Amino acid sequence: MEAKFQELKTRLLEVDDLSSAAGLLYWDQSTYMPPGGAAARGRQMATLRRLAHEKFTDPGIGKLLDALMPYEESLAYDSDEASLLRVTRRDYERAIKIPAGFAAEVTNHTSESYQVWTEARPANDFERVRPYLEKTLDYSRQAANFFPGYEHIADALIESRDYGMNAAEVSRVFAELREELVPIVSAITSQEPADDSCLHQHFPEEKQLAFGLEVAKRFGYELDRGRLDKTHHPFMTKFSLGDVRITTRTKENFLGDALFSTLHETGHALYEQGIRMDLEGTPLAGGASSGVHESQSRLWENLVGRSRGFWYYYYPKLQSVFPEQLGAVSRDTFNRAINKVECSLIRTNADEVTYNLHVMLRFDLELALLEGNLEIRDLPNAWRERFDADFGIVPPDDKDGVLQDVHWYFGLIGGSFQGYTLGNILASQFYTSACKVHPHIPSEIKRKGEFNTLHNWLKANLYQHGSKYTASEIIERATGSALSIEPYMAYLRTKYGELYDLGNCSVA
Amino acid sequence: MEAKFQELKTRLLEVDDLSSAAGLLYWDQSTYMPPGGAAARGRQMATLRRLAHEKFTDPGIGKLLDALMPYEESLAYDSDEASLLRVTRRDYERAIKIPAGFAAEVTNHTSESYQVWTEARPANDFERVRPYLEKTLDYSRQAANFFPGYEHIADALIESRDYGMNAAEVSRVFAELREELVPIVSAITSQEPADDSCLHQHFPEEKQLAFGLEVAKRFGYELDRGRLDKTHHPFMTKFSLGDVRITTRTKENFLGDALFSTLHETGHALYEQGIRMDLEGTPLAGGASSGVHESQSRLWENLVGRSRGFWYYYYPKLQSVFPEQLGAVSRDTFNRAINKVECSLIRTNADEVTYNLHVMLRFDLELALLEGNLEIRDLPNAWRERFDADFGIVPPDDKDGVLQDVHWYFGLIGGSFQGYTLGNILASQFYTSACKVHPHIPSEIKRKGEFNTLHNWLKANLYQHGSKYTASEIIERATGSALSIEPYMAYLRTKYGELYDLGNCSVA
C-alpha cells in the first residue's frame, strides 16, 4: 500500500511540475516576455497543459486509486492521506470524463477566440466574435453533457470551479442576496455621489507600487516566497508553496487601481502561502474553491483595505508618501472616495455594493444561454435590457457591455462568475467569525496597523488546509455554520449606513 | 513520406516545447525567482528535461528516421528537409546510447555536487567537494564509454559540444596556438602593465545597463524579440526564435563587467536571432557548435567591442553618460585600460591574450583525468604547478584555483572548455573574411558607429543556417578554408603590437 501510495504521489508530482511550469510560462508572458515570443509561447503552454492532462488521466492513476481504495477507507476522513486520495479521485473522475481531444480542441478554439476578442472589443464589433462565441456555447454545452444526470445543464460547469454548488443553489443564494441588495443600491444611488476627485490626481508609479507592497508585507505576504510585478490584468499565481507571486497594474492618474489590485491579489497569495508545506506538490496544495479563494482577496482588499480602521492607521503614511496630492485631503474624504458607490458600466471597477449585480447579470445570462433560452445573436440586447433593469443605465456600446469581460471569450460559458459573489459573501462570514473569537482584531488594525491575529486565525482555520476540505466543509469548520448572507448584509448595512443615508434599508 | 516527415516534426516540436520551457524555468531562477522557489524549481526543471529526453529517445522517433532514410537520400544535402533528418539522426543516435536512468542519475549527482561547491568554494575547501568530483569523473568516464571505438576517451565528450572535433585535433590546434601565444604573453607581461584605474570608479548601475543595451541595439539585437535582465552569471537563452534573451551583471565599482558581459551575450543572441524563422522548433534552430557560438560572443565583445575603431565613435557617447568619471580620461587611456593584458588568476576576468592559456590548462587537466593519468586528489596540486608554469604565479588558494569554475562541479568533466578558445580563433577567422568581402566594415564602425554590413554578412554566411551545417562545413562555406589560427594571430599581433612592444613576436 505504502509503495502504491508513493507511486501515486510521484505521478501527481510530475503532473504538478508540468502545471507549475505552464503557470510560469503564463506569468512570464504577462510580465516580461517580448512580443516576438507570443506565438511559440501559446504553443508551449498548450503542450505542457496537454501533457499534464495526459499524465493525470493515464489509466495507471485510475488503477492506483482503485488499489488504494481499501487504504483510504481504513484512514480517518481528515487525515492527509485519505484527503489526498479523496480529492485526487474526485479530480480524476472528473478529468477522465472529458476526452483528451476535446480539451485540446477547446484550448485551440479559445485561443483563437481570445485573439479575435482583443481586436473586436476596442472596435466595438460584437459581430466579429459572434461566430466564435456561438462555437464556445456549443463547446460549453458539450462539456456540460459529459456529466449526464444533472438537474441543470450548468451544474457541472459550476461544480468545476465551486465544488458542491449547482445552478439551483447559486440561484437561491443570489435571489436572497438580490432582494436585500437592490433597495440598498437604490437608497445610495439616489443620493449625491461621493467625491472621489482626490484619487484622480497624478501619483508616480514607483511610489504607488512601493506603498502597495509595503501594505502587502504588513498583511503577512512573505517576499522570500513571493514577488510583485506589473501586468495588464492583475493575477496571483503559484509555482510552488515557496513561490507565490502577485501582479498589479498602475494608473498614474488614479490611485485606486494599483493599490486595491495589489491588496486583492495579496489576499489570494496569503491563502496559498498559508497552505501547510507538507501538502506541496499534491492536489491538496490549492484553495478549496473559486468562491473560497475569492473570499480571501475580497477580505483583504475590502473588509480590511477599504475599512475606516485600516486607514485610521495607514492614511497618515499614505499622506506622507503623497504629501502634495493628499496632504490637504481629510481622512473622511479619502474614506468616502475609496468607498464610492455608483451604478457604473464595468464590473471590474465596480464598488463592493453594486459589484454583485454585475455578477448576477452574467450568471443569469449564462444559464439562459446554456438552457437554450437565449441565442448568442440576442445576447447584446439581452445584456442591455438587463443592465437597464438592474442599473438604470443602458450601456452606450457593446465594448463596455457584452464585450467587457474576457471570460466568455477565453474559456467556456458557465461557472466562471458565481465565485466572485460567493467570495463577497464568504469574506464577511470568515471575517465576522475571526472577530467573534478575537474581538480585538479591528482595534489591532486601527491602533497598531497590525494583522497578525486575523492572519493567524485565517491560517489556522482556512489556509493551512489547502483543499483538504470542500468549500462547505471548510465554511462549516471555520465559521460553525453553512454559507450565509447574514454577515455580509450586516457588514454592508453597517459600513454604508455610516457613509450614506440608507433609510429603512438599514434595518435588517 | 510527407505524413511521416510531418509526424517527426510534430514530435520534435513537442521536445522543443519541453526544452524551451525548462529554459524559461532556468532564466526565471537566475533573474526573478524568490529564494523560496529553489527546491521545487530544481525538481520542475529536472522533470521537464527528463520528459524531453524520454520523448526524444522514444523508439517511435527511431522508426520514423529509419522510414525516412530513402526520403533523405533523395534530397539535396543542403535542403532543409535533408538537413533536419541528418541532424536529428545524429542527435538521436547519440541520445539513445545514453541510458535514461544514467542521465537522471547524473543530473541528480551534479545538482548535489553544485550545491556542495557553492559552499566549498567560498570556504576554500576542496576536500569537501573531492568525493563529489571523484564521482563526477567516474560518471564522465562511464559517459565516454557509451561511445566505444574512440581514439581518446575524451572524444565523445568533446564531440557532444563541438561536433567534428576530437582530443587529438583540439590538442593539435592548441599546441600550434600555444607556441605562438606564449612569447607574446611574455613580451607583454614583462612590460609596465596598463593603467586601468579609470574603469575602477563608481558607475551607477542604471546608466551602465542603459549604455550596454543601447550598444546591443546598435549591433542589431532586436528588443521585440529579446530583453536584458540582471543575473549573477551572465548567459544568453532562447525560448523561441522570437524570444532570445540576454542577462548581465553589474559592478558599480567596475565599468568593464556589465558592459563587456552585455556585448558578449549580445553576440550569442545575434546568432540565435539571425537563424531563419522557418527553422523554428526544429533541431536546426540553434548554433553549429559550442566553438562557433562562442566565436560570435567573442567577435562582438572583443573584435568589435574592444576595438579602437568602435571607441573612436562610442567613447564620446560613453563620456557623456559618465562625464564625471571619464570626462578627463583620454580615449587612448581608456582603450589601453579595456585591453589590459596581465597574468591573472581568474579565467572569466582574463584578457583576450592570456585567456587561452587558462583554457588550455583546463583542457589538458581534463584529458589527464579522463585518461587516468591524474587522480582527483592530485588535481589541486596539478593545477598549481601548471598555473605556475604557464603564468608564473602560484594561486594562493584553491578558491581561485581549482575551485574557480562551475563547469566540473555542475556537469561532466571533459568537453566543456575547448569551445572558448576555438571561439577566439574562429571570431578572427569570420571577422577577417567579412572584412575581405566588405573592406569598409571597420570604417563603417569607426565613422558611423554602424554594424549593418558586418551583421548582414554574418547573418547571410553563418547565422541564418542555424545548425544545418557542421562547424567545419560552415567555417569552410563562410571563410573558404578550414579552421586556422592565422587570422587570430594576425589580429593579436596587430592589435597588441599597437598597445605594447611585442619585440620580435610582432613578426609572424
Can you offer a commentary on this structure?
The structure is a homodimer of 508-residue chains. With 508 residues, chain A is mainly α. The first copy, chain A, has a domain at 2-146. Chain A is 63% helix and 3% strand. In chain A, a hairpin with a 2-residue loop joins strand 2 (236-240) and strand 3 (243-248). The relative contact order of chain A is 0.12. The model of chain A has no long low-confidence stretch (mean pLDDT 96). Chains A and B meet through helix 1 and helix 2 of A and helix 1 and helix 2 of B.
Measured between the Cα atoms of the first and last residue of chain A, the distance is 55 Å
Number of strands of chain A: 3
Averaged pLDDT of chain A, please?
96
**What kind of oligomer do you see?**
homodimer
- The helix-strand sequence of chain A is HHHHHHHHHHEEEHHHHHHHHHHHHH
